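Re: duplicated header lines in exported structure tokens

Our pipeline writes sequence and tokens for each protein into one text file. With two proteins the header for the second block appears twice in some exports. Here is an export where it did not happen, for reference. First protein block:
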Amino acid sequence: MFLTQTVPRQREILEVFLRNGWDYMRRLLTGGKADEPQLPTPAVLKNILVDLGPVYVKLGQLMSTRPDLLNAAYIEELSTLQDEVPPVPWSEIEIILRKELKLPLTETFSTVNPIPVAAGSIAQTHRATLIDGREVALKVQRPGIDLTIAQDIALIQGIADLVARTEFGQTYEIKSIAEEFTKALEAELDFTREAGFTDQLRRNLSKSRWYDPTQIVVAEINWELTTEKLLVMEWLDGVPFLAADLDNDPNVKDPALKRKEITTLLFRVFFQQLYIDGFFHADPHPGNLFYLKDSRVALLDCGMVGRLDPRTQQILTEMLLAIVDLDAQRCAQLTLQLSDSAQPVILSRLENDYDRMLRKYHNVSLTEINFSQIIYEVLQVARNNKIRLPSNMGLYAKTLANLEGVARTFNPELNFFDEVKPLITDLFRRQLLGDNPVRSLLRTALDIKSLSLQSPRQIELLLDRVTSETLQWNLSLRGLDGVRRTMDDAANRLSFSILVGSLIMGAAIISTRAQTTQLSFLSTTLFAVASLLGLWLIISTLRSGRLR
């Protein structure tokens, strides 16, 4: 159905592929020999996505969070995708505002700046002042974008259905990835969801034992005016993070010290989100990190967030330590714990791949190691071994990569491991003792007491079952079904061979001693049956291909 509904769009997509010179499409359409389709080069793929429009730019941004699917070159190229587009004229934005507001525009705002401060593929942002004098930011959805997205989503789902029939599509569950993308895109059209994410992040960051909560800011949402197509929030006066001029800031006495304080604050804020709260801002690129005029730091745009459950948080914390220790065996074990794939994995090969990957860092100083790059390489080793990891691992890796990249650019003197070492230590202490050490110790004492009371009785029951020969062992070993079938086939054929040999021997004995017609007939019949069974045995052996 989608093929007939989106023919003009298909033609446009084909033209974009040809214009960007994807050789596979050219060979296919010119009648040349087309090999197996390969992805365009990273630069060409980026150009194709930009030319296809905002939906495909969003798709590229999502794929940049999946190092378990793409290699480092693609991840790096797609991570630079930005959905900056020409702004929509104010006259069209004003129509949307009037539809979404309960009161007339003049009764809601005293002023609205018709010139946008930012324009993206989904929405654009204007500065305004409420009737009560508060400064706010208005994020207004672009007119008609919901219809455009619905058409492109239908096309992407149709393409995913076709690709899912290939081995590549089945291995990487392309349909699931397409479904994940379409759900994320549809969620971006509902600004009340982003408003809810913003509120949750502000609540989470309002308390911490690692940093001063007054130094981090998340905008407050004006829920009275916010709708699915209009997001109204507190205006934060500042500049993008990397544009901050600390040397000329009158509030800053020591710019170098201030840079260190800010990078320390950022690491602690994001480590709390990742490893304690389990709810994190998943797009900390320079445009979403603001340095405010009062020297505080603000997080903007909570449209993309990630979640980590407690079990995953614990595994990832242990993975941090395994990477620092360059422990390939532990990395392999933790990767398998993260995996949500049922496919068998050769553990020795996985360990060898991690060993080769980590060996590069044996003689490298910790201050020179790009930690986020190692995280990407860990996920790519999993991809090469066809281990499918949860999609939130891509968001996790992208968040760490963006964070480390921004921090290193802002503060070239950054020592990543000095920043995270006390945090990792505290995380392990929390895992061992919890937030309330006394309660954890009491719980452990009760468990030990319960074990000490139950153990003698359990040992007595075990010994009773052993001595009475009623103990049964249930073992489940993978991969034995094929061996069992082979042994069964071999046993059956051996039985048939013995039977045929017995019939032939019996017929020979009767034939040598036959003195009546009846015995001669019996002898002939036995020879015939033996010949048929022997012929059947030979044919079945040849057809099985196991003659050798």
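Second protein block, exported in the same file:
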Amino acid sequence: MDTHVSDTTTPAGAGEGPAGPVTDPAGHAACVVTLGAGGPAGGHRGELGGKGTRLAELSAAGLPVPPAFCLTTALFDAYLRETGIAAEAAGADPRTLRERILGTRMPAAIADAVLDAYGSMGRPRVAVRSSGLREDSAAQSFAGQHDTVLDVCGDEDVLDAVLRCWASLWSDRATVYRDRDAPDALAVVVQEMIHTDVSGVMFTVDPVNPRPHRLVVEACQGLGEGLVSGQVSSDFFVVDDEKLEVVEERVRYKVTKCAPLEPGRIGMTKVDAAARSVPCLTHDQLRELGALAVRIRDLYGSEQDIEWGVRDGVFHLFQTRPITTRPAAPAAPSGALSPYVAPQPEPVLNGTLWSRMDIGEIFVGLMTPLGLSFARYYQRNVHTDCAGALGVRDTGEADLHMGFYQGHVYLNISYSSYLLAQCLPTRDQRHFTSRFVSEEVDLADYENPFGTFPGGMEDLLSTVHWLQHTAREMTQMKSRSQQMVDARLYEFDRARGLDLTRMSRRELHGELHRDLAWFHDMHIGYMPYYINAFAFYGLLTELCARWLGSDGVGLQNRVKTDMSSLRTVESAKEVWSVAQAAKNDPAVLRIIKDEPLEDIARLLREDPAGQRFWDRHMEPFLRANGTRGHQEMEITHPRWIDDPSYIFQMIRRYVADGFSIDDILRRSSGWSDDSREVLGRLPMPKRQVLDTVISLYALCSELRETTRMSMITSIWLVRNVVYEVGRRLVADGVLHSPDEIAHLDFEDVRRYLAGDEDAVRVFDRARIDAARRLHEHNKRLPEPPLTFVGVHDITASVRPAADGARLEGLAASPGRIVGRARIVEDLVWQADEFEAGEILVTGYTDASWTPLFAIAGGVVTDIGSMLSHSSIVAREFHVPSVVNTKDATQRINTGDLIVVDGDAGTVEVVESADTDPQGPPGAAGTPAGATTD
């Protein structure tokens, strides 16, 4: 599928230029070929381009191709001659030629030939697609290099779309792709536009897995352009090419789709709620699609990449091309199954404990190639110094601290606990390892393959070093926190005042170097608060269990630590304040409630009342919270200041629900706490010890949250520079679209800015495509475990039983609630759907989700731990929560009535959404949630 999609058009006569003599009207008509008529290519083989030729062949073979005609390369040549552009082409600047075509009216005889063919089709809505001579060949695909204009209707708009396709022969990206070779002529296909219900791609051989007899299908709701751009979720199927049976199936929750928003405008919209969690295709449809794929492969005698769509139950084929890359040979067992990036001795390889629990939450979840390479930079340049900030004297080898497995980042717990044994609180490695282990792993007989840290003089030196460092830390922790807060505001304001677009390449390199230095310092400054809060929580848990017995079970989660003022929780209150300001101004509220999300910020600034609201309320809010975002180390994710859509969604939600600030404050500070009564039973010395530990936990937690904003702001600064580089690469044609920034390597960005190499050579197209394919492969795979020892075969993971009605996880926040479930996968798109009191069910959360907790009845996540974001914030808002259920998002449906028991760690579906006699959630008479103590 072409990745460049235009949803606006320009009048065909815009600009005047020489029309040239009309020489041969009859000859022009002969250069317009109805596809499928007169054989695979009629008398014009070689003039239809790759796409046109393939469609003609599919049509002639009786395969279901929508009606289409092709403007041959001969017609394009005639256009160039008659407008005088051909005489200018030799040695001309490509951009000048493109502008000439877009500004020159199509000669009348050529336009008549095009419109006669369009009239013969009945003048339907059409897709106008470029068809290059080398396009879709076995050597080069040219996919996305030339333009496509979708959903066009009317004579003038069709002519304009044809000109745009012709002009794209000299687009920056096409020029770069052919490496400045002379351009070939370009054909154009005009095909009836099918507004598909479901679209996708099918590969007659798995492009990333060498196993035979696998037809791979990816399917999404709506038009296929959303799948190609990576903006929508898709289902994944594997069909046996001999029996045509479905042998593998992964159905994802689908929130958005690409579809017509209005005539002539294609964009993103929501998938109907009833279609989100069901497969895009039935097994019967997959068998039918598989049979079509086998026919096409037999027709060409080679493996094919096929684009298809379904409308009203009928399949349509839009394109087929040879698969230009074959699956790589299987990697060595250790490389495929271990997070280590370098070979290791067998005992280390098979005995290492890996975990992705609580690693700052900024690494949680699948990461893009750019995100992974940035994490690798962090590992090599920052992480060991973070260990030093904890008082570790010997910080070890950077490559051993972290690992990477199927697109996820893991912490090497074995090596980390080995090094942390230099510090007194973690001299016993179990104090550290037990905090990073989920219930999948039993550490009863575990032995660290790295052994214990050397004793004797090394231990003595390390202990002295740790004591001196800790003494300094205790005296400086508050002042350093304030310095980090002040520095964050300075750096934020400075960044807002910069215009990166006006910087030279060398200046941009200097800016990135500066930002990375600050990134380094902020992570080192943050790490002690994070680890010390972790340590005091663990100590509190251990002392409660030891001194209070059964009375102390879960006490650490009930203790009132006065952390309702944490920066993360405070952001929910501040969103409420912004919502109140909007509610009090009808003009502002109308814009926020009624306008498309992507237009709200612009429309507010264009409106006098909106501008006042922006200056008085949005700007202070964004200055305080704007660098928050989802999965912050994944620098492809925009922050609130880059895209405030989520904030507008929450404003809509808070206004609609009528929440008062008292509602939020009660949830974050009004909990009835029995911990003081329990602690009162202890002897005074033990009670004083626990009070001290509670105070230190509260202090470190507060400082952690305060300085976290500095840490994540440092990531945002780096992101700004990377995306400015990406913008320039798109403008120069090195990248097809901004979506491809996600497939870059961070080291290539640094190398490009640091030198004077040509961008085409630094950002190699083959490596970008390989990174994209690997990322798509990782997206198909089951979620890997939070922790495992040695190696893990992810292909052995099995899909949970569909009829499971009871789930077990970690009891993260006490209380019991009965309510309707709401699956949330895309925070921005779904925040306005969430009803107050519903149970939030999602994969995991981070700081950007906090405002939703203020109105949630309960929280259930697939992954998480006692100190993950979802657990901490749920406790602060006193929302019952169960985390680490593994597969709640697959076994619970939106609208299910569920019981969340935050004391027992269980979630039970008591009534399925499709059997609810009172209708869907929100229907009259259906309670949003009911809580029991």
